[in-house]
Amino acid sequence: MKSAHLNSRLLVAILSMDVGIAVLLCGQFTSWIPALDYACVQAAASNKEVQDFDPSSGTISSHTLAQQPQKSRGFQRISVTDDPDRTFETSPPSPLDYAVLLQSLRNRGYNHVLLTTRMTWDDEPGIEARALSDRLALFKKSVIALPVTRGATAHPLPAPLVRALIPFDQIKGDHQLIPTVNQVTLPTHVDGGEQTFAGFHRIESTPSSPDHIPMLAHWPGQGLIPSIELLAIMINHDIDIADLLIDCGQHIRLGQKGPVIPLDIYGQTPVPKSPAPATNELAPLTAAQLISLKPTSPEASITPIGLIHATGKNTSPTNTLHPTRLTQILTLSKTFLIPEKTTHYRKLPLWANMTLLLTITLAACWGLTFHPINSLLTVTTLAILLFPLLLAFMHLTHHWFGLSAPLASLISAYLIPIRHRKRTTPIQKYRTSKPKPVIRP
To answer: Alpha-carbon distance 53 to 94, whole Å?
Structure first.
C-alpha cells in the first residue's frame, strides 16, 4: 500500500516537473514568459526601488531611490511687480518689456527660463511679439504655459505643444483615464523656436483636485502632453522629452538618472506633504532689480532657472499659476526620489533553474495527500513562499529566477489526481455489499 502511494507521488512529480521544464524552455524562445517573470520581480520589489530589464541578457538593474536635493539646478524667482519706478513701458508688461527682461536674464548667464505669466495680449503684438520670440530663442530651453480643454471640435496642436508631446511608444499601461483634451483655449503670441516648449497650466474641462497635481493630459491620436510642473522638473534636471518613461498608474521616470514621479491612473501626482529640504536658496528679485544689475554670470555652481511670475495688484491677473502651485514646483523639484545606487541581478542559468524546479516539485509532491484540502494548503503555502524565497535569493546571490515555471509545476501537481486502489478482503466485500432480498417459502 505504501509502495503504491509512493509510486503515485513520484508519477505526479515527474509529470509536474515536465510541465515546469516546458515553461522554462518556452521562456527561451518567447518574450511574454520573461516579461511575466520580470513583472513578478517588480511586484515583490520595494516601493523605493525601480528596475530596468534587459530581455537579451536577462539582467535586472535595480535602482535604489533617495532624495538628492543637491542635484537640483534651483530656481531664481523673478517677480513682475506693478512697476512703481516705471522701468517698463506698461503695466502689465508689454511683449517688448518682456523682451527686455529676457535679454537681461540672458546677459547674466541664465540658460533656462520658465514663464508662468500669460504670453497673450488683447491686441495682436505683431513686431513686438517677434522681438520677444527672438529673445526666447536665445535660451537653451524655455517653457511657457497654456490652458487646454476638451471641445466638440479638435484644434491643431500649437508648435510649442508639439515639441513637448510625449509619443505613445514611451507610454506603458492604460492611459484611457488620463483627461482628454483637444483644444488650446488661449493661444500664445510667442514662440522661441525649437527650444521653446509649452505645458498646460489648467485643464478647463476637468475639475482640479486640492490633493493632487496634474502631470499629464491625453491629446487623442497624438500622445500625452505635460503640465508646466512636469516641464519645470524636467529642465531642472536636464531631461529631454525623449528621456521620459511613463508607466500609467505607477510613475514617470525622468531618464535613467532623473527623478521618479509617482503617478496615479488619472495622470496626477500627490501634493507634497513636507517642505523641501533646506538648501542654499537664491534671494528673489524683482524684474526692475534684475535689469539694474550689472551683466554677470550667477555665482551658483549650477546655473539656476529663471522663474518669472507676477506679484503686483495689476500684474497678478496675468499669472497662470496660483502662488501655492508655484511653491509646489519649488518643493517638487527637490523632494522627488532619484536613483542613488544600482545593483545588477543576473538570471539563473537553465541548469540551475531546473535544479531549483526539481526541489520545489519534490517538496510539493511530498506534501500531497488524498485529501483535496490538505493538497491545496500545501500547494498554496509553497506558492506564497516563492516570493520571499526570490527576494532572499536576489539579496544573497545577486541572481534571480522566474516564478512562472515553479508556479506551473505547483498548479500541475495539484490538478493531477492521485488515485489509490483500495484492497478489500472477502469479509469486507460481503459486509459492504448490498443485502440480497430473502425469499421465504
So the answer is: 51
- Assess whether 259 and 160 both reside in one domain: yes
pLDDT reported for residue 202: 92
Cα–Cα nearest to 129, from 192, 82, 196: 192
Helices (H), 118-252: 127-136, 159-164, 228-236
Task: Using DSSP bridges, classify how beta strands 49-54 and 244-247 pair: parallel, antiparallel or unpaired.
Answer: unpaired
| Helix H or strand E segment including 115 | strand 112-115
Residue 432 lies in a domain: no
pLDDT in tens, 243-272: 999 999 999 999 888 899 999 999 999 998
Please state the pTM of the whole predicted model.
0.79
Domain endpoint, select from 313, 340, 367: 340
Higher pLDDT, 183 or 57: 183
Instruction: Please give the pLDDT value at position 60.
Output: 86
User: If we measure between CA atoms, which residue out of 225, 222, 147, 213 comes closest to residue 183?
Assistant: 147
Are residues 60 and 72 located together in one domain of the fold?
no
How many other C-beta atoms lie within 10 A of the C-beta of residue 116?
A: 23
- Tell me whether residue 421 is in a domain: no
**Residues 141, 110 contacting (CB under 8 angstroms):** no
Which pLDDT score is estimated for 186? 87
Q: How far is residue 266 from each of residues 40, 230, 247, 412, measured CA to CA in Å?
A: 24, 15, 12, 39
Say how far apart CA 55 and CA 57 lie, in whole Å. Answer: 6
Q: Is a pLDDT exceeding 60 seen at residue 419?
A: no
Mapped onto helix, strand or coil, the DSSP state of residue 151 is coil
Same-domain check for residues 112 and 184: yes
Give the structural domain span for 282: 68-340
Helix (H) or strand (E) holding 285: strand 285-286
- Provide mean pLDDT across the span 364-376: 69
How far CA 307 is from CA of 110, 196, 197, 211, in Å, comes to 11, 15, 15, 24
What grid cell was written down for 163? 515639441
Asked whether residue 55 falls in the same domain as residue 76, the answer is no
Q: What is the pLDDT of residue 127?
A: 86
CA-wise closest residue to 129 among 94, 154, 104, 158: 94
The pLDDT, as a whole number, for residue 203 is: 93
Whether residues 97 and 148 fall in one domain: yes
Q: Residue 305 is placed in which grid cell?
A: 532657472
The number of domains in the chain is 2
Last residue of a domain, one of 324, 340, 356: 340
pLDDT reading at 300 higher than 50: no
